[in-house]
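Bump. Still looking for histidine kinase C-alpha cells.
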Amino acid sequence: MCSGTIRPLPDGAVAGIGGPLPVPVLLVDDRRENLAALAALLADFDLGLELVCAESGNEALRLSLRHEFALVLMDVQMPDMNGMETATLLRANPKTRQLPIVFVTAGMAEQPHQFAGYELGAVDYLIKPIEPVVLRSKVTVFCELYRHRRYQEALVAERTAELSALARELGEEVRARRAAEQTLLQLNEELEQRIDLRTGELRRAMEQIVESEKLASLGGIVAGVAHELNTPLGNIMLVATALDERFGAFAQTVQDGQLTRSVLAKAVADFREASALLLRSAGRASELIESFKAVAVDQTSARRRIFDVRATVTDILNSLGTSLRHAQVRTVVQIPDGIRMDSYPGALEQVISNLISNSIIHGFDGKGGEIVIDGRQLGAKVELEYRDNGVGIAPELQHKVFEPFYTTRLGQGGSGLGMFIVHNLTHGTLRGEIRIHSQLGAGVAVTLTLPAVAPA
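Sorry for the wait, here they are.
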C-alpha cells in the first residue's frame, strides 16, 4: 500500500480526464509498523491517494526533491533527524517551501509544543491515537486543494496552447492583410492613372464644348465631371481609410500582446464588412467619408480640442450605422445644439462606442431595441445619459460590470474589457464620473458627468 516512488501520470490525468487525479501523499515515520498502520487507514478512505513512505527525515528530503506531493504526514519523534528539523529543511528549500506538513505525534499535545511546530511551517497536528474521522477530514481538504491547483495549471497550459495557435493564425492573417494592402495600393495607383487620363480627355472635351456651347454649359459639365469622379474616388478612399485604420489598430493589438479570440473574430468581421461597403455606399459616400474622417482623426490621436458634443455623438453613430442596422437598433440623440467641450473627443467616442457594443451584445440579445442618448449643460459640467431598453442587469451583478474580464458572454463576442475601458476613460482621460442604474427587464441607464473643460 506504500511505495517509494510515484507512478507517472497518464496523458490527461492532470486535467481530470480519464478518472480522478491520484493525489501523492508522503508518510514519514521511523517505524515501519506505524507507516503500515497509517497507510492502511488512509487506503480505507478511498480518496484516490498514492502513498509514498519514508523511514527517516533524510529519505523524506530526498523524495520531496524528486517528486511533488500534496501533503506530508510526518512523525515528530524520529532518530538522527526529527520531524521539526526535517520541516525546517523543507521550508528552507524553494521547491518544498509551500509543501503542507501535518505532524503526527503522541507527545506534543501541549500548546507550546504545537506553537513551535507551527512556527516551523506545520499546518496542523494529528495526535495519536488517530481518530479516522479527523484524519479523513483533514486529508480530504488537502486532496481537494491539490486537485484544484493541478486542474488550474492544466487550464493555464491549455489556454497557452490556444493562444499560441491564435498567434500563428494571426501571423497568417497579418501576411494576408499586407498582401491585400499592397494590392489596394496598386489599385489606387491604377485609379490615379485612369483619373489623370480621363481628366485629360475631359479637359480636351471641355475645351471643345466651351468653344461650341459657350459659358452656358460650363457649369453643368463641371458638375457632371465632379460627380463622375467623386463617386468612385469617394468609395475607394473610404474603404482604403477604413482598412488602414482598422489594420493599424489590429496590428497594435498584436504588438501589445492583447489579442483575444473575440478581437480576432471582430477584425475578420470588420474586414469583410469593409469589402461589402464599397457595393452599398454609393448613395451615402459623402456623409460616411466626413463622419469617418472625424471619428478616425480623434480616436487615432490623443489630441485635445474644442468640439460640439452633439456632432461628436452623431459622428460615432454614423460610423456604427452598419452595425446598428444589422442589430436592428434604433438610436435617438436628444442633445441640444451648442453644448461644447474642451476635452478629448476620441475618448468620448470610445466610451459611446463601447456602451453601444455592450447593449448590442448583452442588452438586446439579438432582438433589437432602442438607444437614447441625452445631454445637458450643468454649469461647468456636461452630463450625458445613455439608456437602452434591453434586458437589464441584476442588482447583485452591477458592482462587477466595471471589473476587467468580467463578462457573461465569454467566447460569444465578449472579452470582458468593454465596460472596464469605459470606466478608465471616464475617470482617467475625461476626468469625470460614471454611474450605472438598471433593473432586470427595464434596460440600463449610464450617466456620465464630465467637466466641460478638462483639467490640464
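The radius of gyration is 34 Å.

Edit: fixed formatting.
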